[in-house]
Prior knowledge:
By secondary structure, the protein is of the alpha+beta class. Helices cover about 45% and strands about 25% of the residues. The strands form two sheets. Strands 4, 5, 6, 7, 8, 9 and 10 form a seven-stranded antiparallel sheet that branches. A hairpin with a 4-residue loop joins β8 and β9. α4 packs antiparallel against α5, α7 packs antiparallel against α9 and α8 crosses α9. The relative contact order is 0.11.
Amino acid sequence: MLTREQVDAIFAWTIEARPAMYRDANEQLQVVPGRNVLVREDTNFALGFASKGYGIIQPADQMNLLHAAVGNGEAEYINGGIFEGGKRLYIQLAIKGANFDVAGQEHGAYCLLGSANDTTGSAWIGFTPTRLSCMNQLKFALRTLRNRITFRHTKNAAAKMATVAAVMERARGFFGVYNEEAHRLVAQRFTLQDMRSLVEELWPTPKADNLVPGIERTRARVIQLFDGAQLGADAINGTKYGALNAVIEYVDHHQPRRGGTAGRMDSILFGSQPAVLKQSAYDRLAA
Length: 287
């Protein structure tokens, strides 16, 4: 758990827009018209290039939005982190009173605030249920409800509280729908042959018709997870929900990633490939 003071200390730095410069043929510094460099002020680390009109949302301002949710007792801070010197950041909150049970396994209800500070994306708040037995981040969009919203910073206290209330309402609605969908999937049987077909769709054979050894190993590992090797498998073994969690456990914990633990977390939160695999698996199983 993190306290508000710890969160503020982690994200106390600011981002400054400075004129982008280059050296001309005479080795003189010249300003690049219409372009700024976004710099983390405490370390002078360049985060990215932006247009003159780019609006910066400071990390502390993003945290102030969440402080309102924590302050009224609806959530508590779990963890947070910074990637690539500040290019991306995240903070995770547990929503109180929103946990639920699927097949005897407790699922936690979490909000994730993520922000790309290098102009490659916006600030967003997403919702993710997590199987507490294995901490799989079940992050994907349900068919009937979006799993994240973007937001703009506001200094107005009333507007801030309205934004927080809307986020909490959306989150609780998401977890209610997810709970129903999880029970629907856990009640439907899924065979080993079904699983083989699923992994072949998710990790297809290349057009050259030569099966890459890495793909073959991946398919075998995901099938192994489905067939009893995943954490907490007994309660969901042989079901569509077990198939979904086998894919998610592989993507979250077994798929090779660069950068160690930090690289894996960065990929889970911000990478497009893990999100596409999870979404594709859910869409196929929920159809």
